[in-house]
Amino acid sequence: MIQVPDDVESAAEQLRKEWHLGEDPLASTIEISEGNEVKVVEVDSSKEFDGLSGQANSRPVIVLAKWLKDDLSRKRLTILHEIGHLLLRFSSAIDEKTEEKICYRFAGAMLIPRKVFEKEFGGVRRQVWLEELLDIKLRYGISLAAIVQRALDLKLIDQDQYRIFKSTEAQEDGVRMSQVVMWAESFLRDSSNSYCVQPQRNTSVCPKPLLC
Question: What is the pTM of this model?
Answer without folding.
Answer: 0.81
